[in-house]
Specification:
Elements: H1 2-20, E1 24-26, E2 33-35, H2 36-43, E3 51-52, H3 53-60, H4 64-76, E4 80-84, E5 92-96, H5 98-106, H6 112-120, H7 124-142, H8 159-162
Antiparallel strand pairs: 1-2, 3-5, 4-5
Helix pairs in contact: 2-5, 3-4
């Protein structure tokens, strides 16, 4: 019986992800929109502890040139601050600005308006059962041991480079 239930969850999840995922992040203070990719970069930055641009690129599995393009826009929007490393003037360190931290705190993987609209399509009993089921799955997922597979240690090749 469990295999059929696992198959049902695996079949349902892609539809939920596609319907509910956020396409962009909007800063509630300014109305400015960022792509999920740009907002994802903010997740790896901190207002207090700087990170070198090259280290950020490695962490994200991209080349320094790729991250440089995205960082230029984030710096222009005053969401990220660049500073030179006092120990090595060639290195560029990145910090999250107050505005960048505000956007990072507003980010959610799911679009609340789309989730609300989907729930509104269900009658009260089905809505309660759906929410209870998701809560139960979330609790069970939280009890799982941590996933130990390592992330990619080398940067991904760009599509152009692969062609």
């Amino acid at each position: 019986m469990l295999d059929a239930q696992v198959e049902a969850v695996l079949a349902a999840y892609p539809a939920l992800h596609t319907a509910w995922r956020r396409r962009s992040v909007r800063d509630q203070a300014t109305g400015r929109r960022l792509s999920n990719h740009q907002a994802g970069i903010l997740e790896h930055l901190d207002p207090a502890t700087p990170i070198a641009a090259g280290d950020l690129a490695r962490r994200l599995g991209v080349t320094p040139a790729t991250i440089s393009i995205q960082l230029a826009r984030l710096v222009r929007l005053r969401l990220v601050m660049r500073e030179h490393d006092s120990a090595d003037g060639r290195r560029v360190l990145l910090r999250l600005t107050e505005a960048g931290a505000r956007i990072r705190s507003q980010r959610s993987l799911l679009d609340p308006d789309r989730v609300r609209a989907a729930l509104a399509l269900l009658d009260g009993e089905a809505r309660g059962a759906a929410v209870a089921g998701l809560r139960a799955l979330a609790i069970a997922a939280g009890a799982l041991p941590e996933h130990t597979t390592s992330r990619r240690s080398t940067p991904r090749r760009s599509r152009r480079a692969a062609e």
